[in-house]
Amino acid sequence: MIAKFNLVLVNPQIPNNTGAIGRLCVNAGAALHIIKPIAFDIDEKAVRRAGLDYWHKLDLHVWESLEEFFKNNDITNNAYFATTKTDKPYFEAEFKDGDYIFFGSETAGIPQEILTKYKEQNVTIPMTKEGRSLNLAISTGIVLYEAIRQNYTAFRNRT
């Protein structure tokens, strides 16, 4: 069976990023969880344009708040939290089928209280000191495909 990963976007701000991430999820067999507030209408033309004709194929879950998400999903050691506030590279994480991979908003990242609660599960994408961060859609692709690489036999058997 395919390793089914869950990308979680906390308060996304840019519709084009969210659309591109939706397209990524369809092609990677991943579910997309979007946690409100969202800075745009989820049906906005830019989201559909970036996701092209994939949006209707997306395994999409929209949550009213972080509290609602955590109440309805058992998050323990089955999650990773992408942040620039750690030194642990994403490729040292051991991704497993069903894991949740969290990404914060383009402007604020993941709330500090969540990063603190799950400190051992924080991961980062190594970068030079020249920039602050990578584009959100690029970041999700980097980390998601590392998770697929680690579980490639299951992924390949499904495709």
Mind summarizing the main beta sheet? Answer: 6 strands, parallel
- Let me know the average pLDDT: 90
Q: Radius of gyration from the CA trace?
A: 15 Å
Please bin the fraction of helical residues.
25-40%
The arrangement of helices and strands along the chain is: EHEHEHEEHEHH
- Cα distance, first to last residue? 10 Å
Inertia-based shape: globular
What strand order characterises the main sheet?
A: 3-2-1-5-4-6
- Topology, number of strands: 6
Note poorly predicted spans: none
Q: What structural category do the secondary elements indicate?
A: alpha/beta
Beta strand %: 15-25%
Number of helices: 6
Characterise the protein shown here.
By secondary structure, this protein is of the alpha/beta class. The protein is built from six helices and six strands, in the order βαβαβαββαβαα. Strands 3-2-1-5-4-6 form a six-stranded parallel beta sheet. Helix 2 links the parallel strand 2 and strand 3. Helix 1 runs parallel beside helix 2 and helix 1 runs parallel beside helix 5. The protein starts with 5 loop residues before the first strand and ends with a helix. 35% of the residues are buried.
Give the helices and strands, then pairings:
Elements: E1 6-10, H1 15-28, E2 31-35, H2 45-51, E3 59-63, H3 66-72, E4 79-82, E5 100-103, H4 112-117, E6 122-123, H5 136-150, H6 152-158
Parallel strand pairs: 1-2, 1-5, 2-3, 4-5, 4-6
Helix pairs in contact: 1-2, 1-5
